[in-house]
Amino acid sequence: MNRRTSRLLGYGVGLLLALVLPRLVYPVLALDILLGGLFAIAVDLLLGFVGLLSFGHAMFWGLGGYAAGYLAKTIALDYPFAALIGAGAAALLAVPTGYLAIRRTGIYFAMVTLAFAQMLFYLVNEARPITGGENGLQGISRTLLGTNLNDATTFYYAALPLVLFGYWLAYRIVHSPFGHVLVAIRDNEARAQSLGYPTGRYKLLAFVLSAFLAGLGGGLYSLGHGFAALELVHWSTSGTAVVMTILGGIGTLWGSIIGAAIFLLLRDSLSTLTDASGVVTGTIFIVVVLGFRRGIWGSLLHALPGRREAGALAPAVQSTEATNGATPAAAAPQEGRLETKV
User: Fold this and answer.
1) pLDDT in tens, 106-121
2) 172 exposure class (CB count in 10 Å sphere: 0-12, 13-18, 19+)
3) How far is 87 from 93, CA to CA, in rounded Å?
4) Are 216 and 39 in contact (CB under 8 A)?
């Protein structure tokens, strides 16, 4: 079986799992898993393929949720348009915030994004006539061509095409020449600049696209639950998405879905067994991080010869180790492969 056939088979299995997921778990949790995966993919697009850790992505997730919910509630806008407009609103917010945030890297970038998210949290909490404040935006309708989609299973299958569109968009971004340039910026931004790439523009566009994906997931989340709570824009929501990304594997893209599934299934099952579910989840997270340094899906790909995804984190780790622990002559082949890839 060649690589193309195995990849198509994997996508077929993934699509089949998405179709039967409401039969395996209850429909609301099934939708949360897919949307959590989309949120984690949005974070991974920055963290795994640009090298930027954002602790403020809850502002895009939450803005998409509130915008979609408000339009669906006030003018009864059909759910696909409400979700897409919510995603567009998140992308618009990402333009000025990203323009300022990408001027910094590392922990400073993370703190800038967190600061912007906290500002939005304050604004949402104070805009009570629109957002409902601490009570949230309640009574959100979900309609399509005048038909109410109140049944959770029905809405799951109605929202599935939009979720798959988000997955496809992320895949096309990563596997395009644009995505290859992002990987080059992640590995060596100075070298990418020397090759003539305007790295600032690339990072800003990646930030906006990531915000669009997060806003799309947030919009479908609020429509699926029928309300938009203040928790959507809380900083802890950003932390949850980062945890999902790390669990699955940074820079693996599809590992984010696996990380979201593990996290949400654990949280749902443990909440009925113990009041200290966070302790158990945290312990499992520590074990995974210590035992699977590339995440669950990333470690699996690394263990299979010839199955490493283009743009996965493993090449970046190897390149760093080669540069730090070898002579410049030994590190040169790593740079040559990067230049060819770009």
Assistant:
1) 889 999 999 999 999 9
2) exposed
3) 10
4) no
Q: How many CB atoms lie within 10 A of CB 146?
A: 7
216's CB contacts (< 8 A; 6+ apart) are 38, 64, 83, 84, 86, 87, 90, 162, 166
Where residue 37 sits, what CATH number does that domain have?
A: 1.10.3470
Q: Is residue 78 part of a domain?
A: yes
Range of the structural domain that residue 262 is part of: 21-341
Could you tell me if residue 2 is inside a domain? no
Q: What whole-number distance in Å separates Cα of residue 119 and Cα of residue 40?
A: 22
Q: How many CA atoms lie within 13 A of 104 on its CB side?
A: 14
The count of structural domains within the chain is: 1
* Residue 296 placed within a domain: yes
Predicted confidence (pLDDT) at residue 11 exceeds the cutoff of 60: yes
Asked if residue 14 is part of any domain, the answer here is: no
* 27-50 pLDDT tens trace: 899 999 999 999 999 999 999 899
3-state SS record for 275-300: CCHHHHHHHHHHHHHHHCCCCHHHHH
pLDDT given for residue 324 in this prediction: 37
Distance in Å from the first CA to the final CA of the chain: 28
Would the pTM of this model clear 0.90, i.e. be above it? no
DSSP code string of 115-180: HHHHHHHHHHHH-HHHH-GGG-EE----EETTEE--SHHHHHHHHHHHHHHHHHHHHHHHTSHHHH
pLDDT at residue 305 above 80?
A: no
Q: What are the DSSP E strand ranges found in the chain? A: 137-138, 143-144, 147-148, 227-228
| Residues 63, 211: Cα–Cα separation, whole Å | 10
Residue 289 CA: distances (Å) to CA of 70, 167, 316, 323, 338: 39, 25, 18, 24, 27
Q: Which residues face 227 on adjacent strands? A: 138
